[in-house]
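Researcher: I'm preparing a figure for a lab meeting and need a structural model of a single chain. I don't have an experimental structure, so a prediction will have to do for now. The sequence is pasted below. Please return the structure as tokens so I can convert it later.
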Amino acid sequence: MEDHLGAAGIRFERNGVIGWCIIDRPEAKNALTPAMYFAIKRAVYLVNRDPDLRALIITGTGDVFSAGGDLGGRTSDGDEPVPDVGPDILPFLAIRDSRAPVVTAVNGICQAGGLLVAMVSDICVASERAVFRAPELLRGIVDATYAAVLPAHVGIAVARDLLLSARRFDAEEAIRLGVITRVVPHEQLKDAAIQAVGEILRTGPIARMHVKRMLNDRYGLIDYQTMFGSLTESAEPREGMQSFMEKRAPNWVPEQFAGDIAGR
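Model: Understood. Here is the structure written out token by token.
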């Protein structure tokens, strides 16, 4: 049985008490359009409302989990209307606060919004082939969710390193730093995600809800007002996105280093 989530490039499937939210837009490296972000949020609400479902697993297709948000802000045939681009379309708080367990099965490239989905889920199980990155500052984007979430996972010093350098890191380093908690052989990823769901579902749901609330209090303020204000008021995001499309360095990069960043 399938449930339509209101966006092309993402689908929902049922397997017993588990709902699977599958990011399936390979032609764009599973980049998330606004409708797809909102579809993930819908999937979280679905598993929390449907009495036949008890948990959600989010995964990707091929060798990509998600490359993050689609910088072009595109729409596709089959997309249903979503709220104006802003905090209301984002799924991160819905995932973090979900009473039903949310597990991510990271099958490959995982960056930007895709990495945030993985980090705010209850358990992230990653393939040994997974590669991670928080590239927002390369595009001039102030990401309020990363500023709140990443230091809580890895500490201030490591958060500075990963956010300010925007460098890539592999699954081995991700687990060593505490960005994620489980890495498995690629061919065992699906079974490992199901196992993680089963482990969570053995715990008392009311007690689990209270523990999650106390854990979530450890995150800092998510300043979406500054984040979305900068997207409309600052020239940097527009230049960052344009330079990305044109495969060149943004105009703020000194010429000495422009060759290292062009086309990233």
